[in-house]
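Re: duplicated header lines in exported structure tokens

Our pipeline writes sequence and tokens for each protein into one text file. With two proteins the header for the second block appears twice in some exports. Here is an export where it did not happen, for reference. First protein block:
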Amino acid sequence: MNAALKIFLSMSFSGSLLILALLLGKRFLKDKISRQWQYYIWLIVLLRLLLPFGPEVSLMGKAYQAVDQAISQTVPLPPQQNAPGYNLAPAVGAEQHNEPVNSPADDITTAHQFQDIGVLLINHIWLVWLVAALGFLIRKITIYQGFVRYIKAGLTPVSDIQRLNELSIVAEQLGIKKPIELCVNPLVSSPLLIGFFHPCVVLPSADIPEKDFRYIVLHELTHYKRRDMFYKWLVQITVCLHWFNPLVHLMSREITKACEFSCDEAVLAKMGSSNAQDYGKTLLDAMVAVGRYKENLGAVTLSENKELLKERLGAIMKFKKKSKAIQLLTGMLTLCIVFSAAFVGIYPTAAAADVPNSINTEKSVPPLFDNSQTADNSSEMETLDFKGTSYYLVYNEAQLRAIGTGKYGMNLNYMQQADISLSAGDWVPIGTWDDPFTGTYNGNGFEITGLTMTDPDAKIIGLFGVAKNAHIYNITLRDYDIASAGKNAANKSVGAVLAIGQGSRSYDNFVYPKEAAVSIEDNSSEIERYYKADSLPLFEITFSRLDENAQRTWLEKLYAESDFAFFSVAVRGLDSNSPLLADFAEKAYTDEEMAFFSTLTDCMDEAELELWLGRALEDGNWAFQSMLYNKLNRGEEFDELKEKQEKEWAEAQAAEYRAAGVTMNGKDYYYRGQLVNIFLDIRPNQSVYTLNMNPKGTVNIKIVRNINNKITGVAYMTEAEVTELLEDMDDDDDDWQETAGGRIWHPQVLPVNLETMANGEIVWLGEYTLSDGDRIWYDVSAETGNGLQVGFVKPGDTHLNTIYYSVKNLRQEDETLECTASFTVKPPVKPGTYKLFLRATDGVLGNVTGSISIGFAAKAS
């Protein structure tokens, strides 16, 4: 259970004892001692319920420690907190058992699963308490605010100067310097006081006799002088926190009653006992004039109900000053209650550290017997018998090695009682296939140091070998060396604490392997084996142990083979100051390999990233600029830069077209004053393809560019070129299954069917490896919307900075918006992995359909 909740429950229980004591004492002392004492004595109980402080030695502390001790001894196995089946070895840290052998779950496993659920609920029950407490508090505050708003809505300030003067006189007599408001609200059932910092006395009627008015005002201002409203809210907060404790709710009602009794007593002490009868008559008159609105918990009223009124009248008539003997008794009772509150105390925070078998990584259970066995290395074990169960106590290496031999069977319960340092001899795992360990072993947080296994033919490697339905927990294994064991074994099972568990539970164990020098040859052979086995974690660990030359060889191999996954884990294994980081970053940047460069930047500091960003800005490399801005958490800055650059590019493109005689008006192109029907602009490398069609146009033109991508002129398209272009658009996939050039294409057809695309939305359609000679065919249209683009980018270029094999079209009036074109992959575009995308470039698109085909080239057989 949460330690804070334990302390809080002990506070509630301690307070309950005091509540019972005061309620019992009230039956005998109610009329004998001061009512004001009966009111304020509850503050001690409130403090006990709210303040988590107490002496180190107390009744509650001893009681809770005894309960915890009994529970921990009754259930020697701590609840599981980590799921079995996840083995962290050989990495340093907490180890859970990895069970390589499948076996059916048995009753004990099922039972502990239910136990785990129960522990989980207990550990989080404080959330239920907290949510309920907040709910009650919010409800009370909301009700009070509603009550105050309702009262204030019907308030009418009293303007009678005589009444206001009387109010001021009484306030001055009580030493109240803050101005007091006086109002009337016919809906209240009796006079009351509202306002914490701006007090207001509310009367049900202005027509009150002068004497009654004085008594009423004196009563209400006495409440204000004593800060009874703050006292009431302190009680309400306590009730919300201890909502589950019925005695606290009973205490709240008792304090409310005591508040009025003590106020009556304070008023009579001020006026004298001779006025008791007149004061009692004022209470009766207040009960007669009952309004329609029931007062709220946050207000302080003159009268509440007939039962309380009867008791108050009796107390008023019996009022007389207490004798010195009663005052002395009152003082003694106060001291007794204060000492009782301290004696009862709370659950001490240090108690958790003293409980045996506590689940933590410290040495939580002190040795149960003398540790002399640690020195003599005797194999004889002492036992601890508790409630019919025997626990064998392990102090030294001889006793640890004796488990499973002679009278110390595999089915017994063992508990470690001291740190154990093992000798250099090879360790023999506890438990075999023929004789598995079936008992329990509690390491108790003590250490086992120096476990060593070197047998190259060993198939079962670990402190415990084979266990069945066993519980092995709370072990700290330090400086163990099992790396060289089992090198020749084809199928070995390795676990620092437990190698093979059949329905066993191995948890709360911590393992720290010995740092050992490993030969370069061993590492080289191991890493090759891990690479072939696709074992990323073991590859990463072994890569970090290679020398720089071996690391460079592997990085070059992984880079050349585009093996991004292994390259990433290898980079994580480099030292932060390794020159390989800079070398391969330069290589990836030059080759425009975004993915590889990105993983290298994860190892760079901010200064290095800034240097690379400066270079990308100087080179105008938008893809790398985007990635580096994101790495520096300055993506918005890049977006602004990109928007500015795209505007400049668009203006430069329009200026370039104008220089060639082509003008643009929105989506329409004009050449020599004529509206263009077909506008075609293909870059020399065919990486960008601009096609615009307007049925209302009268001329067909194409942009002529040189090898440097500069426009050299504009040419009218011949009828043959127009026919070829239109026929290419109508070709289907079967037309490019074979060609006379001795190549055959195997098309992969990607259907496109999107109901809608938001303005500017990019839809990614996967990654594809393109090679020289591959063909790409676009046939995508949108039923509604104005702009559509399709193309490829390099992985990691999420902002579409450098686009390849792209078609971008704008809708013409009364025409379908479509992107239809074909490309052949060839230099200068480099073969590699590219991401396919669709983008809505101008407004929302609706019903985007069609297909994209990628024909992977191969030689015809």
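Second protein block, exported in the same file:
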Amino acid sequence: MVIVNKILIITLVLLYVVSIISIIPITSATQGFKTTNISVGSFPTAMAYDSNNGYVYVVDSGSGQVSVISSSTVIATISVGSDPTAIVYDKQNGLIYVANTLSNSISIINRTEVIATVTVGGGIGYSPVALLCVNGLIYVANLNSYKAGVGIVSVINGTKVVCNIQVECHPVCLVYDPSNGYIYVSDTGFATVSVIKGEKVIATISVGQAPRQIIYDPYNGLVYVLNLESNSTSVINGTSVICTISVPYPVAIAYSSSYVYIVSLCNNTVYMISGTKVVGNITVGQSPVFITYDSYNGLVYVANLGSNSLSVINSSRVIYQIPTGNSPRFILATPSAVYVADSGSNEVTEISVCKIIYYLTFKESGLPVGKSWTVCVNGTNETSTSNEITFILPPGMYFYKVYSAYYIPSPPQGSITLSSNATLQISFTPVKFNLTFEETGLVSGTKWAVCVNGTVSTSTSSRICFLLPYGYYEYKVLNVTGYKVTPIMGYIDLTSNTTIKVAFYAMLYNVTFKETGLPKGVSWSVCIDNENHTTTACYITITLPMGVYEYKVFSSHYMPNVTQGTINLTMNEVINIKFTVMNYTLTIFESGLPSGYEWTVNINGSNYTTTMNEINITLPYGEYMVKVYSKYYMPITEEEFVNLSKNTELQFTFVPENFTITFEETGLPSGTTWTVCIDGRNYTTTSSSLTITLPYGTYEYRIFVTTNGYSPNVTQGTLTLTQVVKISITYKQITTTSTTTTSTTSTTTPSITTTPPPTTVTSPTLNTAFVVGIAIVVVIVIAAAIILLRRK
């Protein structure tokens, strides 16, 4: 809203300036121009030309009406909405569209009457301020007084709004780029330009402050945006700003065949732009506010609000200053005259211009009779089926393009500076396209051929290509022995690169593989022509076209007598296959047995014995139960199930078998503790028997005298433990004799009799002679001791 207020203030100041400037008298013929003043409604601000009926429509903003001018006369006054500000003509439907800013609507006029009024903006507070006609659609830029930061571009088709596109704040001007289909919208409030494609905003481009008027230059393809408060002009290519040109307070812009012209309000100057550079400037009247290019004569017109005049520019200089009514602010160029809207005097100045025109003729050669072709000059297309196209043009520089479907022009485009009648020669050559025939079904290397309009081409590859000019052709695929083909012939209208698929079908034969040797239900396979065929039946039949094929035969765990081969299939064939089962090695390892110890493997009831730590057994593919055993040793895992489908290893670990030794005693008083030492370990008990569990092996044992004076009949021995063992022990009390004297006490050492262990595991008998010998020795020792004591 701040920007809009600034614009309104500037406008009021300018109006005040206009009100104090003396009105220049207008003559009926000024400097070769005939002028006529036509009174219209209040405050005319915009105009549009209906090329269908020759009417000029004038928007009278102050009186809410449109004045219709024909032949220098107002022939009708049409009431529209409040504060109409913009107008556009749609040549596709012949309707006039008027933007009513304060009524939030568009009035649609057919000739001299309103046929529809359409509300735009999609809500309350949207005010239409600018119109653009593109390909039969009307784009309306709507300001929003209530919702900050949001603008709407409404799209009208005929008399209906078909969509509303949200853009940035305060859209005030629109322009169309036909090269990419983009519509550019200057968003005054956000210093941006919204880019619309179809019904969507595809980009938002940052430009200078307060962007207002925006144009597209068809001569260089660039878009120019006037940034009022930044004193600059942004130059856009596509969706990017490629340059910013410094211009003080730019208010109006127009393109021509020579330059882009930018009007500066503050210094009464028009700047000439070539591409992205300022190349000159032209001084015009006071307070210039509007500029337009007259494509009918190549001249540029500038409306000078402060000096009530029209500056006429030819290329780089002012050639005329034509007086107008008060406060001229809009210019409309038509084929017959130039119209200036004088908002200060409520009139339109009609200026009849003496025009200079030339004939620009294009002559073609190379096209067939009746073939249409088109020439585009500065955006205007002319199409013809004759060999000449002529444009009637004013002096100036023109860009042209030439085209015809399926033909290449030479030159295809160019430019010409028209200062006299001119003729350009255009030569056409037909575009050539690839017509490709692509075959399937033939054996690699087979020769085949195609005939197109009598020309035969042969190949041994899968493709045959013809390079042909645009046209209509008959083709035929020639026969190949032993094959049928589809399509065999046809017609083609060659307008692009085209591929025709050709399918050959060879005579088919059966090759049957018959097998023997496989168990019932076992699957087997044949691979032929890179395709696998698998079955559990005894035969496989494959249907193939004539040709040479490699094949392979295989089945898991069974070996065919023919594993692979080659067959030249020219008739039905039978191939016999015999399978034999495959053998695998089963290796069994043992651990835990002493070196050289014998052990046995049982496989499905068959025994295999060895003293090595491994055994290798060759067996046919199948399922097996494996068991192992060895005398006096037990395997940790007794058996394993094996599906022998490859060389396999098994590991078994043996541990010695356990046995029990029971020592049974007699002769000890109840509760007496007695001890047995075996394998270096003591075992003590108070019961009459002692049972010890030990693994298979040879052991030494000892039996001790009890603490209360009982001696066993067996004191030690050795045994090999291969079964349950029982040893009986008899204890007897040791006899003790004591003698007492007055001077000495004599103690008799107890007699202990020990019998060596027998060679077999049985209870030994007591040796009497041995006991007597021991007693004699003890008596002698005691006597000697007594004698020694007496000598002392």
